[in-house]
Amino acid sequence: MAQPDKREWEPLFNGKDLTGWDIKIAGQPLNDNYKNTFRVENGILRIRYDEYDKFDGKYGHLYYNKPFSHYIVRFTYRFVGDQTKGGAPWNVRNSGVMVHSQSAQSLSMKQDFPVSLEVQLLGGLGKGARHTGNLCTPGTQVFMDGKLNSNHCIDSDSKTYDGDQWVTAEAIVLGDSVVHHVVEGDTVLTYQRPEVGGGFVSAIYGWKQAGVDNADYWMSRQNTPLGEGYIALQAESHPIDFRRVEILNLKGCTDPKALNYKSYYVKSDTTQCWYKK
Fold this sequence. Notes:
Elements: E1 10-11, E2 21-25, E3 38-41, E4 44-47, E5 60-64, E6 70-79, E7 94-101, E8 117-122, E9 134-136, E10 140-144, E11 147-149, E12 153-154, E13 167-174, E14 178-183, E15 186-196, H1 215-220, E16 230-235, E17 240-249, E18 251-252, E19 267-268
Parallel strand pairs: 18-19
Antiparallel strand pairs: 1-17, 2-5, 3-4, 4-17, 5-16, 6-13, 6-17, 7-8, 7-16, 8-9, 9-12, 10-11, 10-15, 13-14, 14-15
Domain 3-keto-alpha-glucoside-1,2-lyase/3-keto-2-hydroxy-glucal hydratase: 8-247
Protein name: 3-keto-alpha-glucoside-1,2-lyase/3-keto-2-hydroxy-glucal hydratase domain-containing protein
Organism: Spirosoma montaniterrae
């Protein structure tokens, strides 16, 4: 019997292996899992550096191989242990989940970060406030309260999560209209109209400094709305675990007469509808 109100969450991480994911690490070929950075152990997706001598700028990302436009991605994470030798001071207990990202296949060989919206994850340092669920914008920019916010990183108003505790966060992504960051059930950041632009990070760290070979292409897309893309987990020098990564697709059949109609879809895709014969 059809249950149009029942939310059908789809696991992106199967708890067993990295099926469905692509790897791209700066300076390495596509799907070269350099020094076993990404691994699955005891049902946990782990990002580790125990086989590294030093980090050496090997920024990496694990990309789910299907793009989405309207969705909620939910994940549970924790920081563990100490930062890898050679990691930047600002990367202590620092990682992220990229949404509306370019694909793994489209990155340049030496590219550090994908063009994307980063749900930045920060762990507490044992003293003072350190928010998580922030936004960073490699190659992108957003609007807040009707005005362009040109800051590369925008702080949320989340609580601070110290130690190695598990934290559950969500990104509610509605095409190129609005994005909400949610941490432990609290909406901690909201922004609108994501688009390509804003340089890459800054005037000092631009497209070419980030290893982007096709900088002219991205610069030609300045102010282009960013309405869909891939989801990627970041490897940024501090070990992190993901216990769950799942998605609720908000785009699908919105015809109540269809067998697969869902009342919570916010974007219609009539090609997905199917009916009784």
